[in-house]
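Researcher: Structure prediction, please.
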Amino acid sequence: MGVWILDAAGNIVRSNEGGRRIWAGSRHVGIEQFDEYKAWRLDSGKRIEAEEWAAARAIRKGEVSIDEEIEIECFDGTRKIILNAASPIRDDEGTVSGCVAVNHDITARWLAERKLRSLATTLEARVKARTTALEEANKELDAFNFSVTHDLRTPLRAIEGFSEALMEDCHGRLDEAGRDHLRRILAATARMGELIEALYDLARLTRAPLHLIAVDLSALACELAAELRERDPGRAVEFEVADVPAADGDVRLLRIMLTNLLGNAWKYTAKIDRARIAFGAGTDEDGRVVYFVRDNGAGFDMRFADKLFRMFHSLHREDEFDGCGVGLTTAQRIIARHGGRIWADSDRGKGTTFFFTLWEDAALRSEADAAADAAQQA
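Model: Predicted structure follows.
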């Protein structure tokens, strides 16, 4: 740290070794000759004139200046970045009789910060480029899925149709083994049909524009709960639906998302005598609304939570619970399109809670609004 004591004319009357080391020497000149001190403001690059120095302002105007960032040219020609401060010295009558100026050499810190900013900018550019590339790859993959699932429907229906015709027309001429083979073919084509339809729907979800409105998720959950009861009237499931804040979203997609989450809870509570499913919401530490779907069903081992949203993947055996393994992937895609995220907390044998947020990504919300406006104008 450099310390300089100046008199009322701006002449240096005392200094320490730290100050002389920073400047590579010293000059004993008055304010009118302060131009001998070469410096530039870091924020604007403007040369500091004689009367603009912090010491000059302290002496002539009584100003106190703290930590002005400037670049100086030392007396040996080298350049440094310093923090410059000055405060007036007053006599017993309050008249300014000089000032004290303080310099801190922050060159090393400033260079490190500049390098860090450069690295951050480079990293941001790389992340943006890779994100763009990933988005393009995902678009291509979605287009491929859409095309493949569409093209697979016709031959699969042909296999199913010929198998059914064979079962009806040649049933009496087939032995039990032949009939069993046909039943297996029909079952396999039915399952493949479900997978193709699920893939087709998933591909469409990522392509269709969002139509955002305020959606009453509580009313939607009640409606879906009634549909589940109607579809499987033999089950006694206790549904608890809280009054949650409305969500801005595409009602069609949010309905599909909740259908998958509530349907998932319905499926995995099938072996529970007193099944309970709850839909509600709370807030996180940032005041953001966090919705949840909770059940007391089969649960899963959290060690495998990273596989939860993988397509065609189940954390349970196929003979335990049926399904094509696309429901949670679909829910995740829909939530991601609404700028949110989904995660789960579970304990095997004790149930699972799925949490999700919407519009954490403000930029994605702006893009969705812009896309909706463009679609309306088209």
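Model: The helical segments are 17-23, 54-61, 107-169, 176-205, 217-231, 251-268, 327-337, 362-377.
Researcher: Thanks, that helps.
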